[in-house]
Amino acid sequence: MLDKQGSTLGEIQGLRLDMKSYMNQRFERIETDLAELKASMRGRGII
Predict the structure, then answer these.
(1) Half-sphere exposure of 29 (CA within 13 A, CB side)
(2) I need a surface site. Which of 3, 19, 23, 41 has the fewest CB within 10 A?
């Protein structure tokens, strides 16, 4: 039973690391897109 719990814990920790990496990539992409959008809006005098 303890072995199974350890295996499950390892899988959960691996999933958290994968999700963290994925979310960091997504946030970076969103921030880049937002910066480009703001620059474009400033260039057109909207903001």
Answers:
(1) 6
(2) 3
DSSP symbols for 1-47: -HHHHHHHHHHHHHHHHHHHHHHHHHHHHHHHHHHHHHHHHHHTT--
pTM of the prediction?
A: 0.70
Identify whether the C-beta of residue 10 lies closer than 8 Å to the C-beta of residue 4.
no
Q: Please give the Cα distance from 23 to 12 (Å, whole number).
A: 16
Distance of alpha carbon 39 from alpha carbon 23, whole angstroms:
24
pLDDT in tens, the chain (47 residues): 767 888 899 999 999 999 999 999 999 999 999 999 999 999 999 99
